[in-house]
Amino acid sequence: MLLYRKREEIRIKICRLISAVLCAALLLTLSACAGGAGSSTPVSSDPSQKGEISMMCGLFSSSFFEKYAPFWKACGIKTLQFWVRDMDKSSSDETLTTYLQNIQGQIRAAHEMGFQVYLGFLSNFSLPEEGKFWYNSHFDVTDEEEMQKRLNVLAKTVEATPEADGYSIFCGDPGGYVFLNGRQSDVSNYVYLCRQFIEVIRRYRPEVPVNVTPWSIASFQTPYIGPDSTVFWDRETDMTRRLVELDDLIGADLGIEFPCHNYYRPLALRLYEAKNITPPLYPAAEDLTALEQRGCTRRWAWPYFIMDECDDGDGAGVGVQINVRYWYQLLQQLRDAGINGVFGNWSAGGHYDHVVNMYAFGRFCADPTVTPEQVIEEYAAKNVAPADVPALTQALCYLENHANWHNKMPARYQLEPMPAPATAAQALALLENVQPLAEGDGTAEAPADFLTRVRQSLTALAAQES
User: Fold this and answer.
1) What is the C-alpha separation between 213 and 310, in angstroms, rounded?
2) Model confidence, pTM
């Protein structure tokens, strides 16, 4: 999901990569979080008073989850979200039926493993034309014929997945990016689509939870103003606010998954910083309080990119990435504001590079008193013998201080470094005699493989320093 419209060639390249690896991405959700971006925003002084966060995980392909389900469960994930590409599979009734049978089978398998399952519906997608990449196949939501085609496929999907625990209606990228017969689109077009989707869902599943996900809602209004401009980010906030302020949409019967871009994303924060602007943190506590008073129980966040190095054109192959300090800050801020669910991302292209972040996400959700330093030490202990834990912890802290996420943050949003060796060479030397455990304790990969990648990452950084 790469919000970078003006760098279309990068986005398509990455999307093709995503498709090639079964389009798998992991998203997670909490259930009690809070408010602002950057180190200047304080968090609550008494973390023991903050609620536990319930984690959820979303996948672009349901076929991807079984391999990593044990690790996700060890991290505390309780809910999976499978993204449904039903329009892409609707070239024939047989193809769609087979695809939906597979989705329903994966829902049952997930239930057997103890997970709940939400399905994520892509918005204004049409059946791709021959030779056209599915990601760019959109229709005008005011086109009644095309809308009915989409609703017919949606109805088949909902009817074929009676065991799904909930549904999310995704907005843009993928989705949006249309000129409505020469007219400019607006929030009202996404709202119209949502109402149509909800009507179909309620026809078959009247009691099932449903959320809207206004990610890239700006692409419904300005399809050719991309996220390399603050105009895009301003409209993301403004249009989401207008969506939320509709008094007959989000409430007791409809939840929301906020993008929360301005809380954490270097891509947005750098653009604002260049103009000497401090962007508004949305949603703020008063926004979430208003939703709570309207009976909205699913006030979730969707900060996709904090565990995905595809943001602003980065590839996945950048070595072991540890952003534990930034996860800690983000979750504390969201918790304080009143968010009660948060999505992270497990990228198919770079999941192993972010295993420490995934573990940290789970720990911070379950226990708001745990610190970033404790989390890194805990994950080190899952991979090496007790005597080697201090050395590996120090090496991981070095990687945390020099992570790509940290480096691309504007200076005033960068967090204070952890105590760590002064150079990559020194961190690498600490690992000279460290031996991995034969088996990991709830790890995503064998400790030997994790330790090898840590050493490779430090070696690459050491070469840059010399």
Assistant:
1) 20
2) 0.87
